[in-house]
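Deliverable D4.2, example record:
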Amino acid sequence: ARATRVKNKAPAPVQITAEQIVRESAERAEDVYRAPKRKIADQEELKEYRYEQRKQFEDRVRSSYWEPRAWIRYAKWEEGQGDLPRARSVWERALEHHGRDVPIWLQYAEMEMKNKAINHARNVWERACSTLPRIDVFWYKYVNMEETLGQVAAARQVFEKWMKWEPEHTAWNAYVKMEQRYGEKERARDIFQRYVQVHPDVKAWTRWAKFEFSSGERDKAREVYEAAVEFLRNEPEVGELYANFAKFEEMCHEVERARAIYKFALDRLPKEQAESVYKEFMKFEKMHGNREGIEDVVVGQRRFKYEEEVSKNPLNYDTWFDYIRLEENAGDMAKTREVYERAIANVPPANEKRFWQRYIYIWINYALYEELEARDVERTREVYRACLKVIPHAEFSFSKIWIMAAKFELRQRRLDACRKIFGLAIGLAPKAKIFATYIEIEFQLGNVDRCRTLYEKYLEIEPQNCSTWIKYAELERSLGEIERGRSIFELAVDQAMLDMPEVLWKAYIDFETSEGERERTRALYERLLERTKHVKVWMSYARFEATPIVVVDDDADDAAIAAATAAAENDEHERLETRQAKSRAVYERALAELKEIDPDAKEERVMLLEAWKSFEDTLPSEFSKSAGVKARLPKRVKRKRAVEDDDGREIAQEEYYDYVFPDDAGAAQPSLKLLEAAYAWKKAKAAAEATD
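Output generated by the structure prediction step:
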């Protein structure tokens, strides 16, 4: 429909400002209903009120005991009433159902601390740390409480218990910081020695060296760096250590030492590891060498060139990529972010996917830059959210951006956020790649029920997708759920429409064959032949009957396979004679049915006979019936037929090849006997003349 055109573009006589609209909406807004406050006059009313509230809370936690918030509200209400024993009782009951719920432990301990029940708080912290020792916040708050109370020895003891679990870098750093606050340098050094043994990486060694430097011990800091270089010389991140060592010498005003360290590193590091060191060396030379002005001029010229190009064509995303790469290499985070923001502001004008593909990669690079280079988790999350809002999901979407956003949340250990993103993706853009990635993540986490739910959801959306049915059944088979896998295959083959039914049937047949179910497999072939009489189905059926079924484990060796094969040969149903007879019966039946259904389908009959002959040739000579099958092969003869135009008039003759089978030569081709007799007479006459 055509847009309505405004004819009168003159300003209205009365102008209404946005401020006036907002003010009038606030003045005319209705009052928000607020529940009346309950006033309690005496002790009896208070008891009645508490009885009612407790009954409501008890009913709620009894019916929704799996909901942590119900227990927390109950316990906080009891605390608000000043009844700490009851509140403790509620917390303990909550922990019986939610013993691994972090907020319950935290709020329980905070209640005890707030009410100055220190021993009770210690008890809660001890239990929490022993139950969930990998939750760092418990240890931090426990140490903080002891240090606030002035119990430094107790705080040190808590830290020692924590360190036995070999926590992350931040925990060790917090222990060192505490010892520094109390001037215990020797204790801090002992902690660092244990720290670098648990985490032998650049980060730990660098922190130790910085500690010595901040303590005024430059020689000890240098010794730490030298020991680190010796210890980590074969590690991939040793380049960062060299750079930190050189920066330390630079801060000590030892310029020549720093330059020697850079050169030493560049001489010994491989090319892929030396890049970051080379960048730091270039920065160092710009500060202390004579190339600073030249480098600034080169970068400035390139920046000016890119600005000119993007001003001419802001939708040329390749230029934006080059401009962004320049700013990233320059190392100015603020300018890099500015260029990214300017680039993503140029949204493609048409909602066609081919125009958006390069544009989306700017968003992807922006998110990766914030996550990997800037190390800003919140900005990375905002970049993904903004990108997903920009994409017109009603017309098309990008599976890659959904998957990257979900995996980012997974790397941040926010599994719920990851699942929410995947759920939103399934709601807005249910694509195969999204389902496959989501299922793979849940399977790696061991959530089999979620994998089943996702497969069922995807099959509700695309029931014709055979590959999904097959993967679902394979999942159940990998879990040992053979009957579930068989049921899934049954549901799949009963679908009214399938995109690749031949692949589905083959997978179902292979499934039953791998389980050693010969009768079930034979029944499947019979059901398939009811639907189609294709020659390849008959050939596959015959090959199946001729092949012994050997069931072994996936990790079986050659000896086990040979033993299983020998055992199968001794089975009555798997003997060579039985298999030969059944395979020949299938070939005979196939030839008869193909001849009956379509007598002109001679190519298919030839294929079937050749497959039969190949099968007979593979058998030992005492069992083979190759000669009989060879006698049934047709003769290839050349014939002519009329070529007609659109009006049905004959306009030419064309030659073609036909097959004459011995089985139907007498009935279908009576004239061939006369032709054969003529050929025989001519051959005999030529032989007689040669004799004379």
